[in-house]
Fold this sequence. Notes:
Two copies of one chain form a homodimer.
Chain A (H helix, E strand, L loop, with lengths): L1 E5 L3 H21 L4 E6 L16 E2 L2 H6 L5 E4 L7 H10 L3 E4 L2 H18 L3 E2 L11 H7 L5 E7 L2 H13 L3 H10 L8 H4 L2 H15 L9 E2 L7 H10 L1 E12 L10 E12 L11 E8 L3 E8 L3 H21 L12 E2 L6 E10 L5 H11 L4 E7 L5 E7 L2 E2 H13 L3 E10 L3
Helix pairs in contact in A: 1-11, 3-4, 4-9, 6-7, 12-13
Amino acid sequence: MRIGLLxxxxxxxxxxxxxxxxxxxxxxxxxxELELARVAVRSITKERAGDLDPALLTTDAQSVVDDPTIDxxxxxxxxxxxxxxxxxxxxRSGKSVxxxxxxxxxxxxxxxxxxxxAAGVDLLFEAAVAGAIPIVxxxxxxLLGEDVTRLLGIVNGTTNYILTQMSADGVSYAEALAExxxxxxxxxxxxxxxxxxxxxxxxxxLASIAFGEQVVAGDVYHEGIAGITxxxxxxxxxxxxxxxxxAIAEAFPPAEGSAGRREIGVxxxxxxxxxxxxxxxxxxxxxxxxxxxxxxxxxxxxxxxAGGRPTASAVLGDVVDxxxxxxxxxHRPVPTGARAKIRSIDDLASAxxxxxxxxxxxxxxAAVAGAxxxxGVSIRSMEQQGLGSGARIAxxxxxxxxxxxxxxxxxxxxxxxxxxxxxxLRVVGD
Amino acid sequence: MRIGLLxxxxxxxxxxxxxxxxxxxxxxxxxxELELARVAVRSITKERAGDLDPALLTTDAQSVVDDPTIDxxxxxxxxxxxxxxxxxxxxRSGKSVxxxxxxxxxxxxxxxxxxxxAAGVDLLFEAAVAGAIPIVxxxxxxLLGEDVTRLLGIVNGTTNYILTQMSADGVSYAEALAExxxxxxxxxxxxxxxxxxxxxxxxxxLASIAFGEQVVAGDVYHEGIAGITxxxxxxxxxxxxxxxxxAIAEAFPPAEGSAGRREIGVxxxxxxxxxxxxxxxxxxxxxxxxxxxxxxxxxxxxxxxAGGRPTASAVLGDVVDxxxxxxxxxHRPVPTGARAKIRSIDDLASAxxxxxxxxxxxxxxAAVAGAxxxxGVSIRSMEQQGLGSGARIAxxxxxxxxxxxxxxxxxxxxxxxxxxxxxxLRVVGD
Lengths: 430, 430
């Protein structure tokens, strides 16, 4: 089985190394002989890991895809172009493709699945979501009999590292971000991670597989973690929660007897998670995907979501699978399904944590409670901190519809007794 | 795809129910039409769930296996016979088989895999280990590129429920066991669970898949949880641990340059697990399998390990997979490999917790420390509780070989200053 590798950065380099280490064991256990045939890189002269034969290198990625002696393409360039065109032409020429490109799959995955299906070859992408954690294959295959109702994922290691530092060491968001950048966990421009774009792409892919309908990155509502304060973390701890950036995908069946379609809600935002929920113990840069199904109950998949070797392990698993499939003359069915009907964030329900700065005027609680009540948002618990001007009240609500909570916040802002609205966080997993 | 179901107890009944619920959705997403054709039961007259057509029932299981119109057999009878003969004849007549029978696979799995391979059909068994948790397929397929070095599993829900009660509520082993029996989590004769036989069978199956060599139930060393005391739990908490019944499978590569074979160590015993290890948060009757690999790092798979619907969900996932494979004219390769070379418990290494009752004589610590030192077991920490006669000392050792620890214990028993040896527990996951 001759492999063409597109891209030889951190993941690509680790893949070359791992392939060399594992080649003999794979041949012995799976009967698949893997050979690295060509490697497309941006620069031939850049220094490479010692175990990569320089004669394999080329800067012409298209020539690797066009090479008729190559059976299988591994794409680890990332981004939409040229990855999309290269994968498309590989699939159309009958090559199997393994990729870890979440951005590509979250935006134009359906077109690529159709190409793979038409050509009767594999398009595998375990590495695209949650790195080394086997989650794509379990969702596609193990849970075929299951009615998955909700996924909750910690799928961005950078933000989980930052939130863990804030929670454990009491450092500020800015300090934790700087530390993450220093350690190489966060990019110099951290927007894609901290604003939830990266998690959003992964949420779209997970939702598509779990629910069998097409969800794209643009369908995902997202909020980042830059507004989380030390005070929020303190409140969360006192109330028995940890704050995590969650990717959430939910399916809402149509009302009994209605002819309407099922709706899918997909969002990424920070959330308060009860300390005894399995996701609360997922620390540092680890990832986890929590799956809820009607028969299986609660499942969780935990592990390293990024890094060269963990991601390369997922890529190599897919390569062995795709190679074995080619030898046996078959391929895995690709995810199909119509475009999902997306339920807007305005119509999604959650419990909320709302932190208000209030004046000391008499009747403050009555006025505030009235604003919640006017929009049907009921209060589960409240806690006042401090007295006089600058006192704060933290509320946890029962489940409410987002648009009602927003209307409540608009009313609260207009109240004289409310000096300001601090954080508003959703509470998930109770 | 016509299904013959062997056994209709808790799991079989839940399977019938789930198949009815999910049939239409499965046909829509996987293109597989599933039909329950025959159901073999012990008694025709026993009351059944409402959605099972009584006309399908028979007490003649062999006639179901022999029925030429049936494509696929689901075996949920359990035990070795008649399950073994029925599965064998189903495989040999070209039917695919889905089973959740851990006892059978842990004892004679290799013969059955060979039968499936010879017939070119599937033998799938996701439900045999850790119920609803997808662990068999990820190990068999997702981690093909990975060098798995160790598995740590909480794979028996009954004992985990008992240990969770002891840890959280401070109840005794006897009280927690009685509560588990009252709730139906533990059998009236709890031996298979509390003595580690059930976990041992699952450990053998997991080790076989993870390492690609045959490990059978008889290869697994096991100790149960009946000796765990409230005092052990207290010590564990003070030292930062939880006590869990762990199934552990490890691979030991031959020394560099040696021609020897890799050895496999498989054991089940209670262990102290650090509170910040992901396994420490696995509570109540939940199961989890923690996987360590050289590239992927640490992975964990968490969920319900037992119960009708969770187990039926795993069975149905395998049924859909096997049915789709038949339609496409292929089957999954079965686990193969030679009999594993087993490393004896005597030669396995661990850190240990040792709790001694000592006299108040001067020089007690020197004498005790001398016994450890004489066998090369080094002490990482110690804590004395109480004074005078009846004082206790708890030690945590560095990693040591089991035979050296046992020699140390033999020497300690002979010391005048040692009134008795309390618990000895292995410490895992530091």
